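**Sequence with structure:**
===
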Amino acid sequence: MVGIQKSLFPERTTADLIKDIEKLTQEIQELYCLDEIPWVVGYSGGKDSTAILQLIWNAIANLPVEKRSKKIYVITTDTGVENPYVSAWVKQSLKNIEKTAEKQKMPIEPHLLQPNIQDTYWVGLIGKGYPAPRLKFRWCTGRLKIEPSNLFIRNVVRNNGETILVLGTRKTESAHRAAIMNKREIGRTRNHLIPNPSLMNSLLYTPIEDWRTDEVWLYLMQWENPWENSNKDLLAMYRGATEDNECPLVVDTSTPSCGSSRFGCWVCTLVNIDKSMSAMIQNDEEKEWLQPMIDLRRELDISDKDKRDFRRIWGTVQLFERNVDGEVSVEPIPGPYKKEWRDTLLRKLLEAQTKIRETAPENMRDITLISLEELSEIRRIWLEEKHEFDDSLPRIYEEVTGEKFEDCRPGAGISLLGSDEWSVLEEICNGDEMHLELMAKLLDTERQYYIKSHRYKIYESLEQCFETSSRSKEEAIQNAHNKRDLKEAVDQGKVSEKIKQLSWANMKFSGQSSADN
């Protein structure tokens, strides 16, 4: 369903918009020439950031060449899980910006930013086993988008002392966005500029904060793109991502706009479905090659407790209370994805990538859903942090792609333990998952210390293996309840009564105690 655009500002005529553009042009020129503080423009390739960059470009282009001395950085963050068409559009735009800026002697310098390999979506989800992001555990945004941008901005501040961050945010996008922007304005210390609440020595500048969506499109359609992109192609991309495949001229607040289609990460589980990608397939049969991505997205269900460990990622059981039909229920908080589901997700992702490369148009067949660097980091995590020395990643990769996995890490294929040893352990443990886990951790911990120059803290590491993996699921959960009950007894002053029921020994070695009895 297409949302209704509600304006928080009085309706303006086209003549009023033209006057506002002229005013903004003069304002941008004055701010630019006022000092030597470099600018950083956030550019996503969408309509708002395109309008902002176009306004700045046209304003600075009207200055004499000798006055265009201050650097303007244009930054875009490639999360690695963007809509393929949007990603290709943005990368081509950055190339055009760089080439045209040099030709026109503009002080504009584009940068394509990326998250660290350790922080990418697939390394988090498949490597570390983080569950699919949800409202109460939104681990993706900071790692994929915010940190790369903040790191770049901090470097600019470090080299120049201060920076001005230019964004295309608008109050009319939502009431929540308007509330945030209005709150920030209270702390305004300079005309047009607001202190950045998250980055020191950084000021925010939002020139089109009071523009409506239809005004953004009117500006993009009537003013030519200065870096030789086609704004009509941008409009067509938005139009193709709208469910009804329409992008009408907005004449009043009851008329929908194609601004209601929003491009984001195709794996996003904060929404029920990626409507923009689904609409692309619906509106253009030539984009049916995207279907495997939609199918994979459906696998990332946040109702995934059965696929997750009963312990948190650090190996201990953590309890939480919740009210179920008027009764308090104390349950363990699910942890990371289990090995079987991580293996399955990797296989499904590689299958989707393989199928897409076979069916996509010629210009998109080099598409990469997961990079070799990410695969290498996932393999490292499974081997070194999770002690899964069966080394299943190369096997899965070869089974799906038909190609041998070439790990880019030096010495990655050298190990004293492998799939044969894992098979022996599985046979010995006879289906006991916790026993298998404990034996694997103990053996691999010894292996890790064997190749080190010293064995300092090996006993602490071995003790940690027993602490996290020596109990069955039922025993570990009961132990967590015992600890919780003991803490409540301390708080209530009933320690002596509880001590009669519990002892340190049967809490730590409950399995052994029950067997001795």
About this structure: The two ends are 64 Å apart (CA to CA). The chain is about 50% helix and 5% strand. The chain has a mean pLDDT of 86.
